[in-house]
Write a structure and sequence with these properties.
The chain is of the alpha+beta class. The protein has a domain of 61 residues. It is built from 1 helix and 3 strands, in the order βββα. It has a 3-stranded antiparallel sheet with strand order 1-2-3, with no helix packed on it. Strand 2 and strand 3 form a beta hairpin. The longest helix is centred in the middle third of the chain and has 14 residues. The radius of gyration is 29 Å and the shape is elongated.
C-alpha cells in the first residue's frame, strides 16, 4: 500500500509471484472518508457515550474511586504480629 497524505490518496498493490508482477488492485481518494463521523462502526459512538453516562449516573463516585467505606483498610505496621511476618534474608 502506498499513501500520499498531501494528496489524500492511497494505492494498493498485489504482488503475483507466479506472474512475477506487481499489479495495482485499488486506488482511492480518502479525503472525504476522513470527514465521516461514524461509518460502519459497532457499537456506534453515541451508544458508547450513552453507556458511559449511564454508568456515571449509577456510580457518581466513579469506577476508580469507590467510597471510603468500600476501600480495604490500610495495614498499620504497628499492628503486625511478628510471628505472622515471614523472615527476610539479610
Amino acid at each position: 500500500m502506498v499513501m500520499d497524505t498531501n494528496r489524500q490518496t492511497l494505492a494498493v498493490y498485489e504482488y503475483r509471484a507466479g506472474e512475477q508482477s506487481l499489479v495495482l488492485t485499488a486506488g482511492r481518494d480518502f479525503g472525504y472518508d476522513l470527514q465521516l463521523k461514524n461509518f460502519n462502526t459497532d457499537p456506534a459512538p453515541e451508544d458508547i457515550k450513552q453507556k458511559v453516562e449511564q454508568e456515571e449516573n449509577n456510580n457518581p463516585q466513579g469506577m476508580n474511586n469507590p467510597p471510603d467505606d468500600a476501600r480495604p483498610a490500610k495495614a498499620n505496621p504497628a499492628d503486625a504480629n511478628p510471628a505472622d511476618t515471614p523472615a527476610v534474608p539479610k
